[in-house]
Amino acid sequence: MVIDKRSVHRAALVLLLVCVAARVVSAVGDGPLLNGNFEDPPNQSQMSGSVVTGEHAISYWRTSGHIELICSGQKQGDMVLTVPDGAHALRLGNGASIQQQISLTPGLYYSLTFSASRTCSQDEMLNVTAAPVSAGGSPAQTGELPIQTVYTSSGWDAYSWAFKAEAGFVSIIITHNCGEQEDPACGPIVDAFAIKTLSQPEATPGNMLRNGDFEEGPYIPPESPWGVMVPPMDEDDVSPLPGWKIMSYKKSVKYVDSAHFAVPRGARAVELVSGVETALLQEVYTTVEGSWYRLEFSAGDAANGCGASPSYDDGSSSPGMKVKAYAGPSETTVDIDFRGAGGSKRGKIEFRAAASPTRVVFLSLGYHTKSDNSGTLCGPVVDDVSLVPIPPPNARRLLL
Description:
Distance between the termini: 94 Å
Number of helices: 2
Largest sheet: 6 strands, antiparallel
Helix content: under 10%
Order of helices and strands: HEEEEEEEEEEEEEEEEEEEEEEEEEEEEH
């Protein structure tokens, strides 16, 4: 049999293109980025000890500055360094950055999820950027994620950040501290990068709030029992939790799923893990000054062993947890005392809009940790929030 070498070469090229295309598709779907958990380590020729020396040594990533490949179980003095996912992760030194180019659909919204842990006592901040690759394109979108607080006893947390794709080809860039710290080798460990397309739920006639059930939000790794932190946003145009803003200086709320937490309704909810330092907020622009409305919501226990705090912001020291809700000029407090075993209660506010927009705000009045003495921060969950117009009190009395 005579073998046509040109046919073999064409077949090999087609196979290569198919493989490359399949890898690109996996990068733009809802799930991990290519080599997002760094399990494809660099060649030893591009390493100096644990330091990555080659700009393209990490498959699918481009690195800059002091980057270390951290292996599970590796020690720093007497401290064992935590690798969130698998056997490898990267540590970003002072001013170091990593980036990957991904294919997206222009005009759609995306959330990035990744894990990070601290290795030093200094104040830590990660800059996240989504930059169009084409020259002369739209400006880059950037945000700052504070990671000074460690919320879980595992030593690491999963974080989310969102953006709108302004081009079909975007560079995702993670930078540590932008040169603010002195020790070039001291920095956070990052791992488990994933991306998700975000829909933008709209208000409906039955609910004036957007995403009141919290079913739309950042990617939660299916094997992760910890949930995902949604960071504060002061100037970011896009929230990983569509419709909602997290108002705080450096603290976050946690986005949780029903696979690992007790969720009052549906598959997702928000756990208020930062006490009075963080508010979950939505501004409703369709309310009319002088008209009446009803806000209803579920406040619950996530069934994660969340213990009572010794005291609350309102001066009380009763067991359980408390969620405070504001709707325009009115407020209410819901007491939750399920002793960490799950369960929820409904809260309600009927109010007359004093202005438009109307602010709907939730916060936890106490600071809580899990009762297993692990130090893991926790709090009440909020879910199933609705805002609807209602008749004035006089009209309702006449109807009765």
